[in-house]
UniProtKB/TrEMBL annotation:
Record-given protein name: Anti-silencing function protein 1
Main location: nucleus
Residue ranges, annotated region (Disordered): 183-215
GO terms, biological process: DNA replication-dependent chromatin assembly
Keywords, comma-separated and alphabetical: Chaperone, Nucleus, Transcription, Transcription regulation
InterPro entries: ASF1-like, ASF1-like_sf
Lineage: Eukaryota, Fungi, Dikarya, Basidiomycota, Agaricomycotina
Length: 215
């Protein structure tokens, strides 16, 4: 079983300008207390065939983590335009949110991001060089969740009478600053789902707001 399950990813500024920061809230459920931090990373993939071009936009440490439903707000910097091949700027790229515990990645949520100009004339006749200030991005509501088996604990333990063994793992297999965030964040409703690989079945809801989040 998985100790941590993402229940919701809520984007606060989608669509947005290409050069705007990414702002979203992650809500997750934890079924046993974790004394070490969870590490969350946001990665921009402009060229799927070349990992050297991947950009880690930001990461966030959350912990220690109590039992229950927790949430935190994440703000990630936009991609560095100079590191994106000109032919890969417009159109579809990938955005990946990963969760790790003790340097072990246990979940990866992948989104498609479409980038285009903000007016019809530039869409039909893209200027050269690219004018990044006129680009807008739109993150698809379709996403894919990949889960990885990890060892959550170094030894067996008991939590409220339930034995949690050293081999406590995910049920099924399904990646520049370092801001710290408090782990015991706000509570939130938990959608009912079966942790599968489609937006309807993953147990993860994708919400959107036009403006920033309120605390």
């Amino acid at each position: 079983m998985s100790i941590v399950t993402i229940r919701n990813v809520e984007w606060f500024n989608n669509p947005a300008r290409f050069l705007d920061p990414y702002k979203f809230r992650v809500t997750f459920e934890c079924i046993a207390p974790l004394k070490d931090d969870l590490e969350w990373r946001l990665i921009y993939v402009s060229s799927p065939g070349d990992e050297d071009l991947d950009q880690e936009l930001d990461d966030c440490l959350v912990g220690p983590v109590p039992v229950g439903v927790n949430s935190f707000d994440f703000e990630g910097t936009p991609p560095n335009p100079s590191k994106i091949p000109p032919d890969d700027v417009l159109g579809v790229a990938a955005l990946i949110l990963t969760g790790s515990y003790k340097d072990q990645e246990f979940v990866r949520v992948g989104y498609y991001q479409n980038t285009e100009y903000d007016n019809d004339e530039m869409k039909e006749n893209p200027p050269n060089p690219i004018i990044f200030e006129r680009l807008v991005r739109d993150i698809s509501t379709r996403f894919r969740v990949t889960r990885f088996q990890i060892k959550w604990f170094a030894s067996s333990c008991t939590w409220r009478g339930t034995a949690i063994d050293l081999a406590c793992r995910d049920v099924a297999p399904l990646q520049q600053g370092r801001p710290a965030a408090a782990g015991a964040a706000a509570s939130a409703a938990v959608p009912s789902a079966d942790d599968l690989d489609s937006p309807e079945d993953t147990g993860i809801a994708m919400g959107q707001k036009a403006n920033g989040a309120s605390s």
